[in-house]
Please model this.
Amino acid sequence: MTTSTQPAAIQRRLERQRRHERRRQIPAHILQRNDAVLMHLGLAHLGANRLLNNGTGERDDLVQEGRYGLIRALEHFDAGRGHRISSYAMPRITGQIRHYRRDRLQTLRIPWRLGDLHARGMKVQEQRLHVGLPQLNNEDLAQQLGVTTDRWREACMAHRDRRVQSLHCQCSNSNGSSEQEARIECLQDHGRQQADPQHEWLIQMLNCMEPNHCRWLSAFWIDRLSLSEIARRECIDRQILRTTLHGILKTLRAEARRTFS
Model:
């Protein structure tokens, strides 16, 4: 229901949306839920505005997730318990936005258990600093959290690498020196890799073949043409083509076993 305290423009928009919903062939309980959602869409905007400056994400995306949380809240809302819709729905709305930020907003996604483990570790360290105690090392902290040291280090690495950085960002030198170098300089140069001897052997064998045989092999294994298409294009009997390709492949396999065994 709309109230007299709502502006006339909002009431007219709600009525248009309700008329549109009533024209849809959907069950009555879905219509009732959608009507309640339309009445309380402002809660989704309120939740998005509250969390807008507390993390990343576009406002439209946060509003969309807030509306999804509102729908889920209204599906489970029980008016007989005496709660207001806003009191019940706001935790669902903000929770849905936080889950979106945690699970789907980051470009690089990490297992949520690693993120939760890192958050618990940082909380322990902050509590110790608050009471004037020194921070724990990795081994002691992992023991207090009930995990192995490798697991804790994995959580720290995941938290550090979850943010995308420019390849031109300066980092510590990989050889241990104090000079800074760009991350792009740490990438492996694939152009300097040693040539693949099997690839070179295959190229040599193809160059020694008859041109027709090489062309048929390329059409069948590289271009993925069927035997019928190759036979029609080359004006050759399909069975002869099949037998020839089988013989060529058998010869290549035998030569490869003699060369690389």
